[in-house]
Amino acid sequence: MNRLDTSSPDFRADFARLLADRDSDTARVDGPVTEILAAVRRDGDAALCEFTRRFDRMDVTPARLRISDAEIDAACAEVPLKLHAALDVAATRIESFHRAQLPADLRYVDAQGVTLGMRWTPLDAVGLYVPGGTAAYPSSVLMNALPARVAGVARLAMCVPTPDGVLNPLVLAAARRAGVSEIYRVGGAQAVGALAYGTATIPAVDRVVGPGNAYVAEAKRQVFGRVGIDSIAGPSEIVIVAADANDPRALALDLLAQAEHDPMAQAVLITPDAALAQAVQDAVEAELRTLPRAEIARASWDAHGAIITVRDLDEAVALVNEIAPEHLELVMDDPKPVFDKVRHAGAIFLGRYCPEAIGDYVGGPNHVLPTSSTARFASGLSVFDFLKRTTFIDAKADSLREIGPAAVALAQAEGLDAHALSVSVRLEDLARGSGKA
Amino acid sequence: MNRLDTSSPDFRADFARLLADRDSDTARVDGPVTEILAAVRRDGDAALCEFTRRFDRMDVTPARLRISDAEIDAACAEVPLKLHAALDVAATRIESFHRAQLPADLRYVDAQGVTLGMRWTPLDAVGLYVPGGTAAYPSSVLMNALPARVAGVARLAMCVPTPDGVLNPLVLAAARRAGVSEIYRVGGAQAVGALAYGTATIPAVDRVVGPGNAYVAEAKRQVFGRVGIDSIAGPSEIVIVAADANDPRALALDLLAQAEHDPMAQAVLITPDAALAQAVQDAVEAELRTLPRAEIARASWDAHGAIITVRDLDEAVALVNEIAPEHLELVMDDPKPVFDKVRHAGAIFLGRYCPEAIGDYVGGPNHVLPTSSTARFASGLSVFDFLKRTTFIDAKADSLREIGPAAVALAQAEGLDAHALSVSVRLEDLARGSGKA
């Protein structure tokens, strides 16, 4: 863990090292992924079955690629009622927040009599990738699928690897609650290829979302353009700005909740209170003695964790804006003045009773958020990812008379004569009083 | 040019060929671009000067990379007043439409007492790439720069190659009108590298937008993640749906206005009126005899152009939704019934007095639009490209009591104990009546 202090002469160098630690450049696996995508495009279902045999150690025929309703029924029956209820609390809140996000269409007539506007429409079909094994989180299924549903996407196809044929009941229950329309037991780059290019069994979609390993990320990079993709997520991060009286154990657990995700995760505490800094550092050590995922959390905390003491909260805000964190907690009596000054953060959690884990499950806003400082320019997943805009203009004769000549002048200056003529021929038709143009 | 008829038995095969023609897979230039980006990252300004010497045949020092205010003044003085006025008509209308696009923040308190919301903030800095030579369009400078300015982006850096040292006065005048804060005489992949990684002279930006050749497109692909990028544009396209009495020459010019962009451009007329179809075909041939860019337009029209006769307008709409065109004109007495059924299009132009060229220059909506069928999932450039969302939650003690247990249950089911503990420790503190947590 790194201890930094803004009043130390080494601070800028230490902080620069901490930021560089988040550099998002990752190893690429271009070659193998290019081959897998080409095979899926060429051989369709046969390639999917072959890769599934090779990577997930299971024999599967095209007819068995899709997980049947009976299998989903059976899996859902295994999930305890208490967890169905928890999924429902989460899903209801996520739906409600994303419904509030839905944008309105725009339409107005301007001073030149031109009707202008912008219409939002949902995508027809979306593919949702869900990782297999330990990285398969039902909460992630809800967070990826529900915004698409709320946006009005009709077809929602999910691909999830089932190594050795083992299904994850809670993932299937979450998919059913979220309204996923079809689920396939296919993973890796081959799943992304199937969703992008389509096979006899898996029709192509318009956008592929969801987390995955390096192969899945590279496959999304390569199919980008043919279909839309979401951003390539890096390791998870949190910055906690704490002031005033706080339970050090609660703050320590918030830091460890990030650290336990991944040895590459980063958890940072920023506080003007040196005594609190030390108390949280001690509480982290205490929790690491009993935490089930202590090995992962310890690796993350030792290598990437940081506690930064600052002179005041203004200094804290300046650091937050440089970090542009995925998650930001403001744990203090009155978080509003700090909140108002934050320019870059994926999601913000305000006050003492709002740990980031609430946002991971039941808060309502999406937990798929920009990592590695990309909150400078990127946003969390939302209904906007499943909608697109069509702009429109409706100009009548009088409007064309008013704004047409400027278009002709610019088109001629750019050397695009057909552009200019397409406007001027109409102006001429109008001048002649022709009823046709 | 391809003549298709929906009542022909070959229609589906012919139409499938027409769609496949738009396949967006392009040749990649990964290797050279990777080297250029690495050199810029390593050597900064020195690499920019070296590549500019090599590719643009001009000696330049770091101090001369930025185009000075005096040079911009001199260039603007060369632009005729009439063109300054036309640029201003365009800029004013573009600003006005994009201001209307600006979204509102969201903030509400739900039934569980949780305050939820979403705040939009502008990016700090944006890089605008402008191609050199004949592809340098002042209208494109307005369309890329003004939405960023309207969104509130403070710093707008433009890179434009100036082969052999030749500046384009109208491009510089457009940049000044659009509020570009700094302009550099650097082009190609090296410009994208400078904008993404920063050099001593060109500070890094958060997002790079603007059209470019294959090297620029590949460079954007490779820096994606470190900075945001816009979509990689393919050749321009238009679909015109025409019915009722129309001037065939006006429609022919609308088709040729796309065709004259690029031999790969595609212009398609869809009409239920066989006589109109023939008249437009003849009019295209007539215009091609005199059009200055006839060679380019002829190549596009012959290879990729199409006239499709349909039984009725419902058939036309179905084809439009399959094509998902960049531009769509609905040239008929009452376009509304067709307009209402279109699900996928970048921009729509309604009525007889609204040729697509109006939208290229002075309409107001953006002319940077999704090509190659990507209107299925993508949208035109807008203020949304220069804003990002931060979601927030503020839960008080009572809210945590209500929604916290579901989060604990899901975190435990996912095996993330620190997540569960970060919630339950606060619930315990509350149960004990502790004043601290």
From TrEMBL, chains A, B:
RNA-binding is among the record's keywords: no
Reaction(s) the record says it catalyses: L-histidinol + 2 NAD(+) + H2O = L-histidine + 2 NADH + 3 H(+)
Cofactor binding, note field: Binds 1 zinc ion per subunit.
GO terms for biological process, alphabetical: L-histidine biosynthetic process
Pathway where it operates: Amino-acid biosynthesis; L-histidine biosynthesis; L-histidine from 5-phospho-alpha-D-ribose 1-diphosphate: step 9/9
CDD domains: Histidinol_dh
Keywords from the named record: Amino-acid biosynthesis, Histidine biosynthesis, Metal-binding, NAD, Oxidoreductase, Zinc
Active site: 326-327
EC number assigned by the record: 1.1.1.23
GO MF annotation: an example: histidinol dehydrogenase activity
Xref: InterPro entries: Ald_DH/histidinol_DH, Histidinol_DH_CS, Histidinol_DH_monofunct, Hstdl_DH
Record carries keyword Cytoplasm: no
Residues given in the record as Zn(2+) binding sites: 258, 261, 360, 419
GO-annotated cellular components: cytosol
Superkingdom of origin: Bacteria
Residues that bind NAD(+): 129, 190, 213
Residues involved in substrate binding: 236, 258, 261, 327, 360, 414, 419
Cofactor section: Zn(2+)
Family classification: Belongs to the histidinol dehydrogenase family.
Annotated function: Catalyzes the sequential NAD-dependent oxidations of L-histidinol to L-histidinaldehyde and then to L-histidine.
Protein's UniProt name: Histidinol dehydrogenase
Species per Swiss-Prot/TrEMBL record: Novacetimonas cocois
